[in-house]
Amino acid sequence: LRDGSVDVEVGQPPRIHPEPPIEPLSSDRMVGVVRAGHELAGKRVTLKRFAAAEHVVSSRRGRLTGPIDGLLAEHGLRRRVAVCTPTALASLHLVHSSDLVGITALVISRTTLAALELSTFEIPLDLPTLDLSLAWHPRYDADGAHQWLRQCIRDAFSVV
User: Fold this and answer.
1) Cα 62 from chain centre
2) What is the widest separation between alpha-carbon atoms in the chain?
3) pTM of the full structure
4) What gap in Å lies between CA 146 and CA 24, rounded to an integer?
5) Each residue of 35-74: pLDDT tens digit?
6) Could you give the CA distance from residue 33 to residue 85 in angstroms, rounded to a whole number?
C-alpha cells in the first residue's frame, strides 16, 4: 500500500500508525469441512476425532501450523497436516476430492461449499472470529475512482 504497488488490501492487515486507513468489513466464524460421505460428515466431531484426521491447510507463506495447533496442544493433541495449499479455495477443492479435513470461514465460503457439496461441522475448540478489513493508503482518500472501488468492495461484503 505504501509504495503504491497495490490499491487496496482485503484481509487482516496489521495496524500501522498513522497509515493506512483500515475499515472493518465482516466477521465470520471458522468451521471444519469435509466431502459428502466422509466419516466426519453429519456427525458431532470430538476433539480427538478432529485431531486424528488428515488435514489440509492453506497458507500463502507455506506455514503448516497456526492457532488451531496451539489450541490442540493445550489438550495434548496434534493434528496431521498432509498438504498445504496457497489459498483457501484450493484447500476446498482438495477436500472435495479426498478424505482430507479442511477449515474455512463459513459465510464467505458458503457459495463454494454449496457448489462442491461439502459438509461443515463445528470445530470443538474456542476459536476466535475471522475479522476482515479493508485497507488503503491515505493518498487515495479523496480519489473518486478509488472511492468507487472501496464502495464496490463494501457492497460485495454486505451481501455476504
Assistant:
1) 15
2) 54
3) 0.81
4) 17
5) 999 999 988 899 999 999 999 999 988 889 889 999 999 9
6) 15
